[in-house]
């Protein structure tokens, strides 16, 4: 028996909270730091996620390895590693040579490992290691509830960065502040080690020697239960941003709910987890039944329902993990396998799925996997009420599944894109059958799959065989014909990305945000007047290639596009003919626009058009002062910079107004109201384009004179940009989207 000091529970809770807070604070901070250098490609974020998960797994493996030593030796090794990792402070981006062609996939993880690898590794070991040290005192009790504190700290760190840190601190201050937190963590680890130091020279845990090592089957069970919520968190993010609502920063909510589910599941309050476990099969059936819906689902209600499903299912599965936890002697093995499961789910959803599927099929697959793993307590034991024998009850359940299959077939036959009328009635029937067969896992999962197919799922699957849909790391693109409207549309998820008239006489007519009365249409139509017959034009963002039909003979056009798949779509005359009809020889440069424009000769372009805001997400690194400086360098001294800021969630005028003021440039905005009809099949859409020039004469030549902002939007009218009092200029070191988000949706875009 080893001598012990008082448990000092508060000290271990505080140490775990601080470590987890720092761990999830550094992730968005480093992502923000590397943005100007690597660009905003999803591959970068997938690589970053893979690095974080690999380092987290490594930290848990390290904590498990330390368990073979006495607690004193563990403390010495761990504190020594803390001091070595401190050499990487303050947090910054490593200075390594840029990658050669085709080496980006290896170079990005290398850069992140070199920048924060040691620091992230040692901090990630905190949660399991502190729990093991806590459990070294036999009076301390069950250490597993401390994992709730770990995830509470992670949750707080994740939400604090966009809400508090980023809006109020430049990157340099963030880095030094994080370093101060790291120093505090070291002191707390020293105090925790001191609390267990005396009498801890022998085996660190005073547990019965007969605590058996968990079986291989049990370990595999842990792995799978941990993998599904991790994958579901990522697939929910992809599903929401692709096919529900393209709301920026939405990734924070699924990750935050995923972390908070651990707080509930690993707390000492068992009743909430039990209630959630009862609700989980019902919620999975009602919301997960929409998992294959690829159209008509773009509502905030469905988005919020999807988030609720993620939280409830993750809490139920993590609660099941807590129920299956081993003795404290095997604590680090348990957390190691949990972390490995998280990596497995992340690899499937973030890396493999985009390569395997042309749609977000990982989402319904993970919903079905959750149905296979969730505890399924019988809600209505109707077989017992009826006194049925087990064999008869199974046969009855099979008959109910057959009825559900018939209902799903009727839904497929009648599907029109909306779940109403008879379709809704059949769907409710399937849902009720699903509730009745919860006691039989095979039947429950079968009914869940049938409901998915009935609610638009068959149409989603069928589109995969038509060749009209393609997927890249940047999203899911679908080309759809509307013969009654003479239109062909390109959609990114549910967001319109391009439209072409299919009738021959109008197929070269610019559409959507790019019509003749839009800011970009007015500017490109004047290109010859502004810069001569050999005007040099740079277009950032290809889409369907609509802008190409503003090109005139003799003009030199260069198009910058980040997604090679989009280039393939725009160049395929069987899909869209803007490029082949109007600019077949235009140069197309693939890559992040900021990085590629920086490689262009100075003073090359007369007009630079920035149209890279796909799915209402903001490529923040394209709007900073440094980015505008790159555009200015690429333009001629009297060039025109045109930026598309149409956005449902952010009012971006203050950003560009502050930049124009700082540079002494002239700026104006053309807010084209679009057609008055409001029809779903209009060729044109409303748009907002900002023009910036270094010379007032060029602005007058472009606009014909800026009109007062309170006038009605006359054809071709340019008005002043709306500035926001006290708005701070965006730079690579400081930029926050939160102020402009609040400004648009709370204050309503009014100047303060």
Helix/strand class: alpha/beta
Number-wise, the strands total: 11
Distance between the ends: 68 Å
Order of strands side by side in the largest beta sheet?
Answer: 7-6-5-8-9-11-10
Strand content: 5-15%
Please give the largest β-sheet. Answer: 7 strands, mixed
CA radius of gyration is 29 Å
Mean pLDDT across residues = 85
Shape summary? globular
Helix content: 40-55%
Poorly predicted spans: 1-5, 199-207, 747-752
Total of helices: 26
Tell me what you see in this structure.
With 752 residues, this protein is an alpha/beta fold. Helix content is 54%, strand content 9%. The protein is built from 26 helices and 11 strands. The chain has a 7-stranded mixed β-sheet, with helices on both faces. A 4-stranded antiparallel β-sheet has the order 1-2-3-4, with no helix packed on it. A hairpin with a 4-residue loop joins strand 2 and strand 3. Helix 3 runs antiparallel to helix 7, helix 8 packs antiparallel against helix 11 and helix 8 crosses helix 12. The longest helix is centred in the first third of the chain and has 30 residues. The radius of gyration is 29 Å and the shape is globular. The termini are far apart.
Mind sketching the topology for me?
Blueprint: H1 9-38, H2 42-66, H3 71-85, H4 104-124, H5 126-135, H6 146-168, H7 171-195, H8 216-244, H9 252-265, H10 270-288, H11 300-323, H12 331-356, H13 362-373, H14 382-385, H15 390-414, H16 422-436, H17 441-463, E1 469-472, E2 475-482, E3 487-492, E4 495-501, H18 519-525, H19 527-531, E5 536-540, E6 556-561, H20 564-571, H21 578-582, E7 587-590, H22 593-597, E8 605-610, H23 625-634, E9 635-644, H24 653-663, E10 666-672, E11 687-693, H25 696-703, H26 738-745
Parallel strand pairs: 5-6, 5-8, 6-7, 8-9
Antiparallel strand pairs: 1-2, 2-3, 3-4, 9-11, 10-11
Helix pairs in contact: 1-4, 1-5, 1-6, 1-7, 2-4, 2-12, 3-4, 3-7, 6-9, 8-9, 8-11, 8-12, 8-13, 9-11, 10-11, 13-17, 15-16, 15-17, 16-17
């Amino acid at each position: 028996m080893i001598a012990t000091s008082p448990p000092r529970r508060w000290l271990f809770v505080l140490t775990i909270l601080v470590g987890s807070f720092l761990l999830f604070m550094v992730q968005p901070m480093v992502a923000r730091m590397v943005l100007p250098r690597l660009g905003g490609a999803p591959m970068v974020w997938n690589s970053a996620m893979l690095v974080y998960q690999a380092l987290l797994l490594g930290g848990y493996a390290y904590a498990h390895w330390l368990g073979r030593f006495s607690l004193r030796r563990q403390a010495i090794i761990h504190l020594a590693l803390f001091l070595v990792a401190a050499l990487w402070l303050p947090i910054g981006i490593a200075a390594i040579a840029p990658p050669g062609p085709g080496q980006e996939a290896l170079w990005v993880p290398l850069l992140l490992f070199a920048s924060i690898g040691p620091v992230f590794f040692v901090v990630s070991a905190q949660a399991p290691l502190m729990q093991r040290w806590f459990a070294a005192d036999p009076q301390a009790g069950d250490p597993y509830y401390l994992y709730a504190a770990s995830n509470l700290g992670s949750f707080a760190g994740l939400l604090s960065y966009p809400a508090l840190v980023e809006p109020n601190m430049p990157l340099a201050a963030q880095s030094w502040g994080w370093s101060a937190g790291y120093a505090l963590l070291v002191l707390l680890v020293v105090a925790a080690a001191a609390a267990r130091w005396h009498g801890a020279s022998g085996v660190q845990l005073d547990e019965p020697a007969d605590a058996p090592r968990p079986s291989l089957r049990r370990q595999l069970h842990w792995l799978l239960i941990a993998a599904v919520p991790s994958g579901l968190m990522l697939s929910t993010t992809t599903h929401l941003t692709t096919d529900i609502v393209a709301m920026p920063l939405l990734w924070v909510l699924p990750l935050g709910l995923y972390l908070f589910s651990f707080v509930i599941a690993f707390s000492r309050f068992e009743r909430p987890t039990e209630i959630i476990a009862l609700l989980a099969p019902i919620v999975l059936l009602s919301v997960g039944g929409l998992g294959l819906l690829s159209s008509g689902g773009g509502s905030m209600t469905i988005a919020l329902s999807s988030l609720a499903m993620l939280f409830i299912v993750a809490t139920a599965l993590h609660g099941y993990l807590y129920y299956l936890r081993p003795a404290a002697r095997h604590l680090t093995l348990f957390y190691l396998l949990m972390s490995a499961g998280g990596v497995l789910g992340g690899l499937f959803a973030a890396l493999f799925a985009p390569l395997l599927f042309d749609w977000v099929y990982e989402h319904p697959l993970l919903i079905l996997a959750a149905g296979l793993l969730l505890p399924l307590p019988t809600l209505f034991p109707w077989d017992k009420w009826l006194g049925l024998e087990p064999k008869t009850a199974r046969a009855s359940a099979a008959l109910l599944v057959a009825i559900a299959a018939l209902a799903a077939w009727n839904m497929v036959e009648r599907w029109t894109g909306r779940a109403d009328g008879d379709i809704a009635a059949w769907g409710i029937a399937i849902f009720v059958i699903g509730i009745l067969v919860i006691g039989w896992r095979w039947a429950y999962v079968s009914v869940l799959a049938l409901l998915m197919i009935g609610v638009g799922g068959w149409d989603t699957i069928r589109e995969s065989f038509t060749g009209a849909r393609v997927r890249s790391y940047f999203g899911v693109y679908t080309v759809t014909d509307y013969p009654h409207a003479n239109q062909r549309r390109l959609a990114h998820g549910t967001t319109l990305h391009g439209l072409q008239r299919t009738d021959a006489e109008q197929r070269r007519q610019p559409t959507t945000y790019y019509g003749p009365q839009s800011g970009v249409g007015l500017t490109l139509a004047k290109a010859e007047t502004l810069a001569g017959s050999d005007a040099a034009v740079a277009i950032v963002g290809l889409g369907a290639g609509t802008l190409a039909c503003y090109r005139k003979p003799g003009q030199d056009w260069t198009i910058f596009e980040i997604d090679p798949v989009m280039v393939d779509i725009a160049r395929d005359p069987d899909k869209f003919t803007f490029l082949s009809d109007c600019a077949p020889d235009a140069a197309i440069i693939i890559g992040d626009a900021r990085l590629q424009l920086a490689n262009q000769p100075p003073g090359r372009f007369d007009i630079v058009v920035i149209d890279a805001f796909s799915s209402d997400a903001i490529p923040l690194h394209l709007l900073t002062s440094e980015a505008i400086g790159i555009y200015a360098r690429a333009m001629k001294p009297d060039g025109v910079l045109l930026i598309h800021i149409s956005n449902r969630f952010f009012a971006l005028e203050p950003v560009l107004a502050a930049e124009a003021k700082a540079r002494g440039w002239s700026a104006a905005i053309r807010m084209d109201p679009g057609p008055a009809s409001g029809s779903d099949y209009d060729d044109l859409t409303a748009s907002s384009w900002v023009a910036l020039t270094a010379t007032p004469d060029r602005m007058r030549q472009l606009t014909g004179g800026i009109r007062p902002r309170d006038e009605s939007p006359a054809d071709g009218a340019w008005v002043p940009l709306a500035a926001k009092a006290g708005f701070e200029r965006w730079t690579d070191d400081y930029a926050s989207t939160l102020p402009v988000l609040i400004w648009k949706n709370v204050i309503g875009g009014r100047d303060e």
